[in-house]
Amino acid sequence: MTFTPLRERVADLLRSALQAAQAAGDLPPFDIPEPLPVETARHAAHGDYASPVCLGLARIVRRAPLQIAQAVIPHLPAVDFIAGAEAVAPGYINFTLSEPWLAVQVAAVLAAGESWGNVALGQGQRVQVEFVSANPTGPITIGSARNAVIGDTVASVLSAAGYQVEREYYVNDAGSKARKLAVSVFNKYAELLAAPVALDEETYPGAYITVMAENLVAAAGRRYLEQEPEAALREIMRWAIEQVLVTVEEDLACLRVHFDTWRHERDLYTPAAAGQPSLFDQRLEVLRAAGYITEKDGATWFTHPDLDKDAVLIRSAQVIPNPEDRPTYLASDIAYVWDKLVLRGFDRAIYVWGADHHGDVPRLYAVTKAQGLDPERVGIILYQMVTLLRGGEEVRMSKSSGEFVTLRDLVDEVGPDPIRYMMLTRTVDVTLDFDLDLAVEQSDQNPVYSVQYAHTRIAGVLRKAAELGLALDAPADLALLTHPSELALIRKLLLLPEVITLAASAVAPHHLTLYATELGALFHAFYRDCRIADPDNLPLTYARLTLARAAKNVLARVLHLMGMDAPDRM
Q: Quick check: pTM over 0.85?
């Protein structure tokens, strides 16, 4: 079940009025702007919605915007959900919703249940959201937690907006970082067995390397000491990556993040059958034939008019001796974007990257375009880093030194709900301060607690009503809902389809936290201003209980979209 946002219904009315005004000769012929601008009114005195369309038409129609607005209003179709429209200077058309109509919408919201807010924006298009994709060289850290929450919530919002969504984890198991993990484990493994073997290469620090080496000793004994080092490293690399991915999957599950597919980078360089080129080799030759590949300084470069300078695809053998380590991330991206948009047929591919990858954005668009694909089908979310605070002081972390806060540590300390909510409270383009003390505080200062407490409070109201012998699902005269706090809450309930449309079209999940916070506050105001269960006024009681149940459902829906619990008790 899907719903048309009220903003779109108002736009449809306005479009009909403009067409009717033209047909009647009250306005001259012109192309009606699309989409028609309709905004949520900033002040209650200005109604519920406002359109500035007449301001933009002044030059075309050669009239003052206010005069255009006055010519349009008489042609607005009569509908049950609009109480009135007025033209106001300098040329806005303000729309006010009908309060009797608002009241009866509570039943529709309640009946929709978990589907309330769904919209048909996507029309069934297939979208892949690829996120987290941290190098499989160690535990998931708090830095990747923001990536995980953003990606998972974007996927949920897109699904609610009518897209077919697939979540994917891209395993970076090709290249130098995978080898570095293997060397790290091998050296520690040899040390545990008191063997005089040590590869003179850079390694990862951290206790998790020791744990992996201990597990390798238990599983293989001295077998890898008896092999040629490179052969041993290849086997250890595969084993170590599998071990890391098991931990990664478990840790992300603690945050309620799950993936439909796990795509391995190494597969892009592996021939599908003996004697056949890999997907990367196939795409490289296509680009070479099209004139996008050059060879210089012993390296292979990608060149494109959209780029300021050429980008390295395969580094020189004089710089990187191991051929498996020579391809860059961009080399993999060439095959990977083709795999997504062509071989697997997604209509759109969304990547969630840390802001440190901003330089890769134009290169990905360029390799997409060079392969004859529309770069508009690629969406890239760049998010800023997370600063962890305790007692007002930054918690210092350094992955290079092995000192970092893992996602599992964070979940164990504060739980998944505060992590998910707080990771979404800011737009992705700003650094996020994660306050550990605030995350566990049970007060209105903690936005997570405040929103979930609103759901808990409603559950408590309904339990108390049931204890009083009131039938929660009794027929209700919703026309009795006339108090300003009741109507304000209903207006907010009806906005969810617009919020989902906005969050999906802008790929901006922070709109959910803003909406949830405002919805929770409006329920608290309704609870403060209106006695819900009043045995001396059963008709009004049943109307208010119906409104409370609808608010509970919508709060739960938004919390679930964010991957959070909607608790009945706290």
A: yes
